[in-house]
Design brief:
With 82 residues, this protein is of the alpha+beta class. The protein contains two helices and four strands; from the N terminus they run βαββαβ.
């Protein structure tokens, strides 16, 4: 099964990326995921379910440890073409 994760971390800082946002970005970019899109107001990545779920756990641990006060997260199943 393939999954898509979308997430943001808070608090926002429009001047520079906060440490928690950089930590989350690093986790996602180092994970075995594809279709990674990192942006200033939201981030997405896709991959096999085990890899996405592993990355989500690391993302939560690392971003909260780096000062995030909120992590908004959505995980969707990607329908396979038949």
């Amino acid at each position: 099964m393939r999954l898509r994760v979308e997430f943001t971390t808070e608090p926002f800082d429009l001047e520079e990326a906060p440490a928690h946002a950089e930590a989350a970005r690093d986790v996602i970019q180092e994970a075995r995921l594809d279709a990674v899109d990192v942006g200033p107001f939201g981030n997405t990545a896709e991959g096999e379910s085990d890899e996405v779920l592993r990355a989500v756990g690391a993302l939560l641990r690392e971003s909260l440890a780096a000062g995030a006060t909120r992590v908004s997260l959505q995980v969707n199943v990607i329908q396979e073409a038949r």
